[in-house]
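Final report, Chapter 2: Outcomes

The project's central promise was a pipeline that accepts a single protein chain and returns its three-dimensional structure in a standardized token representation, suitable for archiving and comparison. That pipeline is now operational. To close this chapter, we reproduce one record exactly as it appears in the project archive, with the input sequence first and the structure output second.
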Amino acid sequence: MAGEARVPFVGLTGGIAAGKSEALRALEQAGAATLSSDAVVHELLTSGDVRDALVERFGDEVAPGGEVDRSAVAEVVFADPDKRKWLEGLLWPRVGERIVEWREGLERQDPRPRAAVVEVPLLFESGMEAVFDRTIAVVADEEVRNERAGARGHMGVESRTSRQLSQDEKAQRADIVVRNDGTLEDLRRALSSALATMEP
């Protein structure tokens, strides 16, 4: 029976400042259940076992007063690929477990959501695309992205994308590409149409 089909499981990614967070909100408004992997990471960094592992590896300065300082951790790991790899090895399996638990809970909801969408900035870089039924990449013109990044006090997007695939590469690898150069209403319409293509 169609009613027994699993909720479509969707990975959302995109270029820096292309509007992934806006897209996640728009998908929620369109009837999808949504989760941000960044929010899961922030939550994990407040947990005791992750904090203890970080202090053991990097020293007390990453958790002054017993609380993890995210910017101190970022400073340590982004300059050193081995340390970054270690941190990803610590966090990504835990993020994966949280996502699985979240998704299983949705299957029991009544009514069930139109889709289960997880925002993963490094979706393809981390190899996580394999766990999703479909993937969506949000893209925007370079000029628009630089403007948005500037409005948030960030430098141009290129200086922050060395670890990430280019926006074009993400678009080529995604199942669905949604442009976010227009209005919020345009974005909502495009994402609602994308959800409609996934419904059983």
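Archive annotation: Residues 12 and 119 are 5 Å apart (CA to CA).
This record, like all others produced under the grant, will remain available to the consortium after the project formally closes.
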